[in-house]
From TrEMBL:
Pfam families, per the entry: ABC_tran
Keyword Transport: yes
Keywords in alphabetical order: ATP-binding, Nucleotide-binding, Transport
Region (Disordered): 299-328
ABC transporter domain mapped to chain residues: 2-227
Domain of life of the source: Bacteria
Single GO molecular function: ATP binding
Family: Belongs to the ABC transporter superfamily.
PROSITE patterns the UniProt entry points to: ABC_TRANSPORTER_2 (PS50893)
Name of the protein in its database record: ABC transporter ATP-binding protein
Amino acid sequence: MIELEGLTKRYGDKTAVDQLSFQVRPGMVTGFLGPNGAGKSTTMRMMIGLDNPTGGSVRIDGKHYRDLAEPLKYIGALLDAKAMHGGRSAYNNLLCLAQSNRIPTSRVSEVLDTVGLAPVAKKKSKGFSLGMGQRLGIASALLGNPEILMFDEPVNGLDPEGIHWIRNLMKRLASEGRTIFVSSHLMSEMALTADHLIVIGQGKLLADTSMADFIQQNSRSYVRLRSPQQERLRDIITEAGITAVSVGDGSIEVDSATSEQLGELAAGHQIVLHELSPQRASLEEAFMQMTAGSVEYHAHSDDSEAADPGLPPAPRWGQGSTKKNKGA
Ligand SMILES: Nc1ncnc2c1ncn2[C@@H]1O[C@H](COP(=O)(O)OP(=O)(O)OP(=O)(O)O)[C@@H](O)[C@H]1O
């Protein structure tokens, strides 16, 4: 378990991390999201004592990092894959780490095997590709067989096979009861990996919730219907007191009834349906909706609706961007 209490980091008059309090619990993958500059890396660095907080505290299994006798056996971290000594082989990089942390030498070969680097164990790490460097960084995090693992952008530079591998590795480690905390900008990947989400913006906590609740609370869900009797279908839905909107592609969208209700309504009037599909926004859409007001740097957009960088994107019918009230 990782516990943050009022964690704060200021650089001069810039508050990078602002009174953050949350817990990262064991047995699940917790995703850490936030726009660029939100304070994710700074938070993670403070978790393993690489930066000192200006205020508040982080506890690893109830202790401050500096009070852990053998920290690598409690928490392993991949923060900067380039932090390895380039002149040393993959094996020797890990051997030095093992020896200085009283970790059995046998673990070095084990973790090299786990991350798929055994065939290049004797090669100098400066010749490694970005993906190989990531794997070596992951091996160093696993070295002490810790109960808590923290990965900052672990899929950076990995090919699809590598991304699939790290996703399964994180899920397996979590299923063993470990605490897994991971940041990534790849929303589609995060949606497949994380069970729980911590979202920050401008250093502040925006959400601490399950993946399913986060998507539900920050996006619009609706049912899409298509029928060769589209006009009659829309009239019947409207007569039932439900708002139905015809959209350009010949379908009807309804966001105040379930697909079961609509299916039964259509069947009751013997209307043929070609589509009856509940639509749920993606994590990416939900994330953009939630963090729209706390993005530090915006790219200029030619899209007139999104041209004002100070404004959140306008809600669009059919694109899952209408904000729902909490619990709706
Ligand atoms: N050493 C430093 N000195 C001054 N400002 C810093 C320092 N480190 C980080 N910052 C600032 O703190 C804020 C948070 O940075 P941080 O790198 O933690 O964000 P992040 O969420 O990890 O961003 P990204 O997603 O781009 O990696 C940024 O505005 C950054 O410019």
